[in-house]
């Protein structure tokens, strides 16, 4: 559990957050997306957010990235409220967000450029990460010349090379086939182990949530409220290829699926 007595030892915190969107049109009623959501993450913790479509998972990440404001409550990063765009966090959004006019290498360097890292250093770090995920040789390819899996890898290393202490990932493996997905999960864990940033990871895949996370937070259907929190409690480093064999896996999977099934039935 998070130690509430030491809030500065928290990387991020949402405190009684409500988020309502006001649709266009005068007669439209506000839509409540998040309803009294509170949680905190320890530095280095890997947390997955799981819940039905439209329950506000992406909204939670957007709040932390400062792309949208809470209607009530507080969003805090390292003890400071997030009041504008939060360039301190790394963010892999739900879309494939490589810049089509830049080569893969220059895409990976992009975050470092924003941080004004000198060119030589930038190039060295980008190449190091590219090597780590087996993309060496494709540095000069443009995104449309890469496979879906390669584009996802490039997006992930770009965000991790940025070296933020908090990384937000919104269904980063969404459209990939099952095999590529597990391989990328394994790679992601290896990269994460190098610096251990705090990760907030959104996924619809319960197996993925268990394989990757220290803690899993389930949400109700909209308006999103926290339904339950689970400590995963599986030892690291993890073997994502055989995670299903563990008794703890089964137990968690069944509990998570019960939560989600109930919420989907309620929509
Ligand atoms: N900018 C916006 N303007 C108006 N409504 C919005 C906006 N962003 C999100 N919403 C609404 O808020 C609710 C939560 O959206 P959000 O994208 O956070 O859900 P989600 O849990 O990420 O869903 P999914 O699993 O489908 O990605 C939805 O009903 C959505 O339509
Ligand atoms: Mg979403």
From TrEMBL:
Top-level taxon: Bacteria
Keywords in alphabetical order: ATP-binding, Nucleotide-binding, Transport
Keyword GTP-binding in annotation: no
GO molecular function: ATP binding; ATP hydrolysis activity
Coiled-coil stretches: none
Domain ABC transporter: 12-246
SMART domains: AAA (SM00382)
Pfam families with a match to the protein in the record: ABC_tran
UniProt keyword annotation of Transport present: yes
PROSITE patterns (UniProt xref): ABC_TRANSPORTER_1, ABC_TRANSPORTER_2
Protein name: NitT/TauT family transport system ATP-binding protein
Organism: Nonomuraea solani
């Amino acid at each position: 559990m998070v130690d509430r007595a030491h809030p500065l030892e928290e990387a991020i915190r949402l405190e009684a957050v409500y988020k309502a969107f006001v649709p266009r049109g005068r007669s439209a009623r506000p839509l409540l997306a998040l309803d009294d959501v509170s949680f905190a993450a320890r530095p280095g913790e890997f947390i997955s957010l799981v819940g039905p479509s439209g329950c506000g998972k992406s909204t939670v990440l957007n709040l932390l990235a400062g792309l949208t404001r809470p209607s009530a409550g507080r969003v805090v990063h390292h003890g400071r409220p997030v009041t504008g765009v939060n360039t301190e966090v790394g963010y892999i959004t739900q879309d494939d967000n490589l810049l089509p006019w830049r080569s893969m290498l220059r895409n990976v360097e992009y975050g470092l450029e924003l941080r004004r890292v000198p060119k030589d250093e930038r190039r060295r770090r980008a190449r190091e990460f590219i090597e780590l995920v087996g993309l060496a040789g494709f540095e000069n390819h443009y995104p449309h010349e890469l496979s879906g899996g390669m584009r996802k890898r490039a997006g992930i290393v770009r965000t991790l090379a940025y070296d933020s202490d908090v990384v937000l990932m919104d269904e980063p493996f969404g459209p990939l086939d099952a095999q590529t997905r597990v391989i990328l999960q394994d790679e992601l864990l290896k990269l994460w182990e190098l610096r251990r940033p705090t990760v907030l990871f959104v996924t619809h895949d319960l197996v993925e949530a268990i394989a990757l996370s220290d803690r899993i937070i389930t949400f109700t259907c909209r308006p999103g409220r926290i339904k339950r929190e689970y400590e995963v409690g599986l030892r690291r480093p993890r073997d994502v290829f055989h995670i299903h064999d563990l008794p703890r896996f089964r137990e968690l999977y069944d509990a998570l699926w019960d939560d989600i099934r109930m919420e989907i039935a309620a929509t």
